[in-house]
Design goal:
It is built from 22 helices and 13 strands. The protein is of the alpha/beta class and 542 residues long. The chain folds into three domains: 227 residues, Rossmann fold; 190 residues, Glucose-6-phosphate isomerase like protein, domain 1 (Rossmann fold); 38 residues, Orthogonal Bundle (Phosphoglucose isomerase, C-terminal domain). The chain has a six-stranded mixed beta sheet with strand order 1-2-13-12-10-11, with helices on both faces. The longest helix has 22 residues. The termini are far apart. It binds 6-O-phosphono-beta-D-fructofuranose. The site of 6-O-phosphono-beta-D-fructofuranose (F6P) has 14 residues, from loops.
Amino acid sequence: MSSTLTRLPEWRALVEHRRGTVFDLRELFASDANRFARYSIAHGELLLDYSKHYLTDETVRLLVALADARCMRDWIRRLMSGERINTTENRPVLHTALRANAPVMLDGHDVTQDVAQVRAQMRRFSEALRSGAVKGATGRPISDVVNIGIGGSDLGPALAVEALAPYAAGQPRVHFMSNIDGAHVQAVLANLDPHATLAIIASKTFTTQETLTNANSVRAWLAKAVGPRTGEHFAAVTANSQAAQAFGVGKERIFEFWDWVGGRYSLWSAVGLPIAIAVGMDEYESMCDGARGMDEHFESAPLAHNLPVLMALLGVWYGDFHGTATHAVLPYDMRLKRLPDYLQQLEMESNGKRVTRDGEIVDYSTCPVVWGAPGTNGQHAFFQMLHQGTQLVPADFIACCKPHHHLPEHHSILLANCYAQTEALMRGKTADEARVELQAQGLSSEELERLLPHKVFPGNRPTSTLLLDALTPHALGALIALYEHKVFAQSVIWGVNAFDQWGVELGKRLADRILPELAQDTRVTTHDSSTNGLINYTKSKW
Ligand code: F6P
């Protein structure tokens, strides 16, 4: 039996539309000189060009009808008004309240007042650190801050600190330690002076194995240099203040956030502290303002002109009606090189679900594999497959009109490549065009025919291009919020809960079981033969 979603007439209409329409991008551009104007939207310092997609006005109409049938508007209202839409954890989802400029009521209490208090605490602490006023136990000013966290407690701040490096004062330097791999711990600490280092333990739960193990190792490293007063070298960002205090972090250095902030949506909470330390609180708040502008757009723009909704619908259109399995994110900006990592968690942890909110097993595709790397590097690695491989891979190209550096020639080359790639993916090269080129090279007809199939590009490969005026804190905030809302809008179409992540639990539990087995002398026999074999083989090498 088919699911509630695929039984909808709006879904069936899209199936028919897909079946009955040939989407030939070259042809669509040839027949409409205004296609870019028709299918691009400028909002603030962002421009979305979605003209290089398999769509006509009818496609947009049908996709928007699907969004309406899934009550998109109402879901946006439910999200922003603090309804308990994370039903498996019985929590509201209020990351938008973290950047709101009007009261947001939760159980009769305006949560923006709590947010303002923590913001003030972040401002005081980040300014004190930046001015050199915060000293370690032995009296040295703090020159380096290490954020110890993983997943949502790492990826967002790490992305933003890297993206906004031109805004950083340089002091203190901010580093990120996430992996339980001791090599990561050693690499981060290698060039740091414990007397002048402060660690922020960022963990919503304060129970995450990687983060707490790393924090303990950092504490031992600090203790060797500064003795027992290691507490003066720590701060914590958490929803579990008691556990942070038990670790030894002073109350005044604990920055709270709340269970209504999902980990992967938390960089707008005190999890953003490393950003404020790196670029200053004013720039951090400018980032939040950029995100709020996108919230307002998401809430108010008609669905057919609503950037996050359109991006969401395009993803559904390809994944569910054209069978694509992956989605590439290709920033043509080295400072956004961590964006694909960040979006992997945002998209795949949110919408990588196989049952609906009501527990129904879906009979359609939900979240694709999200992957990517910065251009132009990717062009010299995997773009071959994008152009001539057998899979259709929709892609987001992201670039900034103005750079922050003073090498204009580099920027022109970068952008020329970005635009050339989307053009090449769209147009391709026909056999006739390839033949003319080969003939011009004076090849024998035999050699020409031999090479011809290799020189043809099928084209018709869809892409979006997102242009930022410049990579400012404000624009970055808008960009991140755009993707957050895209993910939510897709969850509405697919009917899944975007805010839980039960799929990460099983592996954690099994690791807890294997850890003591790695220490025991006897051979392990409690698992399947592969897992037993791997554990026992490893121990034979220790
Ligand atoms: O294991 C997944 C996860 O729970 C993510 O959702 C979260 O961002 C990450 O771990 C870190 O969690 P915490 O901030 O509680 O340490």
